[in-house]
Amino acid sequence: MTINHKYILDEAKDYLFIALGLMLFTIAFTVFLMPYQIVAGGVTGLSAIIYYATGFHLENTYIIINGILLLVALKILGVKFLMKTIFAIFTLYFMLMFAQEIIPKQENGLPFKLMGEGQDFMSMIIGCVLSGISLATVFMNNGSTGGTDIIAASVNKYHPNVTLGNVLIAVDFCIIGSCMFFPQFGTYLERAHKVMFGFCVMAMENYVLDYVMNARRQSVQFLIFTKKWQEIANAIGTEMDHGVTILDGHGWYTGQDMKVLCILARKNESTYIFRLIKMIDPHAFVSQSSVIGVYGEGFEEMRVKIKEQKKIDENRIRNEQPA
């Protein structure tokens, strides 16, 4: 398979899973959050707040706000960076519109309450879990839902010290807090109730999002003590295309020298590694441990800013001077 074909297949897979993630997000939002007028962050949440307060269709507000943000961001971030974002925005727009057409309505025009009356909190939990999983699916396939993500990426480009997470939290905080300025939501106490629910949504959704993404990226370390170290190393290197580090070991009790295999792998590769070890040497001694992070080729990129060399030299000289 040529590189071009592989690239096309990878891109097609990304777009497919982005669409599936957006479908799950649409279900979470229209079935579990909208019926109970639960607010959330992001442009979707802002669109929902405007819809609850004015009746203006949610999907129309969503596409208008994102359209404005896209026009601004195209110049800053470029078309290539935003291709999947543009796809996600229009896909979610049509999904939200279609979902609201087919879902039965209450008397107030909102989708029917699947969980029944008075089940706001339970519906919020289910909606947050589903939306967190859906957003993780989109992000893990190099996609974005647009909206506040565009704002965060644009700010981060000109101010690298301002993290994406800080921008998103600040924007979502303002969006959810805006409920206090809509008298249509009732008294100040009722508006505060909505704001508190919104903050719960933001916290739970981000927790599920982080959990799913970190679970997929979680890595493990194997230390394998075996007399058949060469056969196991060859099997892992050839069948899994995985790197293996060979360490020199010395047994305290036996007094014999031996080789120890050290392997860093994704957690979902563990079963296959154990299977290879057991097929070659069922009596091998294996230690598996979770690691906080693995950075480098085949794993995560080291996302840190490198200081200018001049500043590094100045700091080094300052530290070397006697007190």
Structure description:
With 323 residues, the chain is α+β, with helices and mostly antiparallel strands. Helix content is 61%, strand content 9%. A 4-stranded antiparallel beta sheet has the order 2-3-1-4, with no helix packed on it. The model has no long low-confidence stretch (mean pLDDT 83).
Write out the strand line-up for the largest beta sheet, numbering strands in chain order.
Answer: 2-3-1-4
Write the element-wise H/E pattern from the N-terminal end onward. Answer: HHHHHHHHEHEEHEH
Task: State the end-to-end CA separation.
Answer: 63 Å
Helix/strand/pairing category: alpha+beta
pLDDT < 50 runs, ≥5 residues? none
Q: Please state the average pLDDT score.
A: 83
Radius of gyration: 26 Å
Strand content: 5-15%
Strand tally, please?
A: 4
Number of helices: 11
Task: Jot down its keywords.
323 residues, alpha+beta, elongated
How do you describe this structure in short?
By secondary structure, the chain is of the alpha+beta class. The protein is built from eleven helices and four strands.
Task: Spell out the blueprint of helices and strands.
Layout: H1 3-33, H2 42-54, H3 58-77, H4 79-102, H5 120-140, H6 148-158, H7 164-177, H8 188-217, E1 219-225, H9 229-239, E2 245-250, E3 257-266, H10 270-280, E4 285-291, H11 309-320
Helix pairs in contact: 1-4, 1-5, 2-3, 2-7, 3-4, 3-6, 5-8, 6-7, 7-8, 9-10
